[in-house]
Design a protein that fits this description.
This is Chromosome partitioning protein. The chain is α/β, with parallel strands linked by helices and 252 residues long. Helices cover 40% and strands 16% of the residues. It has a four-stranded mixed beta sheet. A three-stranded parallel beta sheet has the order 5-6-7. Helix 7 links the parallel strand 5 and strand 6. It binds adenosine-5'-diphosphate (ADP) and magnesium ion (MG).
């Protein structure tokens, strides 16, 4: 889940998509790669104090199995938490061997839990943490907020993805674009959505995530929007998005 813009819905989508996939019967791991630890919070996974976290995996070679936790009351859903220590990783990684491939290596030797999906919630930057996730991943999902400036910075992200494809991860592909925080009452939102669809065509999911207070309230209860308010428009949208993604995966 990558987009160096902050506040576009990376974390919200990581968490709710993962929860929706797990409710569809899939086994899903969310890796929190943002020092703010918002995905960990939303998944009710301890990430304060000295809990073992993704920082120790990346920098100290701690095995993934030591940090992965089952999300309470969500069978099949797991979280690899981030503590604030991760804020230092961006600099500490610079001097390490194979600094771009630390996460890929950690995942290659992780087989404690059988998984259908691993979703990596990237920080809002194009630094080494995001590079590590793009080197470890097979697909990039880019959430785009239906607002003015939505496409700003996107060409830089796509350029970086091309560089990583050329040098570090030939199999990487931008498989999915998801329109988020769509406000059907504004003409701007539909204009942005149209523009994105013209540009990126079938990469864009048919499902659009509406702007909804339920979506923004759920994380403070350590819940996904599906458990917080199953009948809400946000819950329905994330269940639909998960189904679309699962069908796409099955058809390749
Ligand atoms: P990012 O991880 O890209 O920085 P977040 O997922 O944290 O973005 O979302 C930014 C803010 O927008 C958060 O406060 C979140 O609760 C809110 N938000 C995200 N998606 C929606 C939505 N569909 N409707 C309403 N608020 C949303
Ligand atoms: Mg985030």
């Amino acid at each position: 889940m990558a987009n160096q813009k902050g506040g576009v819905g990376k974390t919200t989508t990581s968490v709710n998509l993962a929860a929706a996939l797990s409710m569809h019967g899939q086994r899903v791991l969310v890796i929190d790669l943002d020092p703010q630890g918002n995905a960990s919070t939303a998944l009710a996974t301890e990430h304060r104090g000295d809990v073992p976290d993704i920082y120790q995996v990346l920098v100290d070679d701690l095995p993934m199995s030591e940090i992965v936790r089952e999300v309470p009351d969500m069978p099949g859903l797991y979280c690899a938490p981030a503590t604030i220590n991760l804020a230092g990783a961006e600099i500490e990684l610079v001097s390490l061997v194979a600094r771009e491939a630390r996460l890929r290596r950690a995942l290659a030797s992780f087989d404690s839990v059988e998984l259908d999906y691993i979703i990596i919630d990237c920080p809002p930057s194009l630094g080494l943490l995001t590079v590590n996730s793009l080197v470890a991943a097979e697909e990039v999902l880019i959430p785009i907020q239906c607002e003015y400036y939505a496409l700003e910075g996107l060409s830089q992200l796509l350029h970086n993805i091309d560089l990583i494809k050329a040098h570090l991860n030939a199999n990487l592909q931008v498989s999915t674009i998801l329109l988020t925080m769509y406000d059907g009452r504004t003409r701007l939102a539909s204009q942005v959505a149209d523009e994105v669809r013209v540009h990126f065509r079938e990469t864009v999911l048919d499902t659009v995530i509406p702007r909804s207070v339920r979506v923004s309230e759920a994380p403070s209860y350590g819940q996904s929007v599906m458990t917080y308010d199953p009948g809400s428009s946000g819950a329905t949208a994330y269940m639909d998005a998960a189904r679309e993604i699962a069908y796409r995966a099955a058809s390749v």
